[in-house]
Amino acid sequence: APAAHRCSYEDYEATAKWLGSQTEQRPKMAIICGSGLGGLAEQLENRVVIPYRDIPNFPQTTVVGHQGQLVFGTLEGHQCVCMQGRFHTYEGYDVNQVTYPVRVFSLLGVRTLVVTNAAGGLNSSFSVGDIMLIKDHINLPGLVGNNPLCGPNDDRFGERFLCTSDAYDCDLLALAQQTVEKQGIRASVHQGVYCMVSGPTYESIAEGRALRTLGADAVGMSTALEVVVARHCGLRVLGFSLITNKVVTDDRTLKANHAEVLVADNNRAQDLQGLVRGILAQMSVD
Ligand code: HPA
Questions:
Q1: Angle 47-283-108 from CA coordinates, rounded to 5°
Q2: Whole-model pTM above 0.90?
């Protein structure tokens, strides 16, 4: 495991201050775009694009299908900052690096976090291309010691012992469900539980079955860590998974692979973008 990468409050502040000097935009909403889902960032108006390599203290992305830049701009009347490309522990980053941007956003004034990801479907009623509204998560790395809130607590961000039973905002989830009904896409959208694993291996058959038994509807290699840190600093969270493949739980001749994940993204990313925009259009701008 990589050495713990501790960040001080001053590091986060320095990054936020630098970003604040690059644009006059002060977004209230941050959107983390998952694998192949960066298209949302292309739709912002008045775009200000800042590559991660230019940002003090920022990690860099290394995965195909993930760009590496922040995009500031307006979407459906909301000032937003989008992460086009996120950080994963399987790249070798530790949990503090993976979640670094979330605290920076909070210091910039962000109050709401929208997270998207590509995920494998565990619930047998899910089809490839479906969307899952995340109602809860199983932070598997976090449960066994790889939690971004391990270590000294900085009260300026949040409290020592964080409640996560309310991690995914009920009001935002209800608004999302209303928008699903309005857009007539109910048949391909489900609510469910997202389980985070560290990856980069896709699940063995026994692992896939185990995760289903634990109560997960979808599995992926991101999101839960960012959500925990977002909740720690008081952000409201709305999360989406795009089901890019079915997790293999019986047939050994089926194999999950990254190419399949990216193809499914291309086909259905538009629908997810349309849903997110529809929800934002109904959200009050605060
Ligand atoms: N497993 C884990 N992560 C994933 C998968 C999967 O099947 N698909 C996309 N991300």
A1: 50
A2: yes
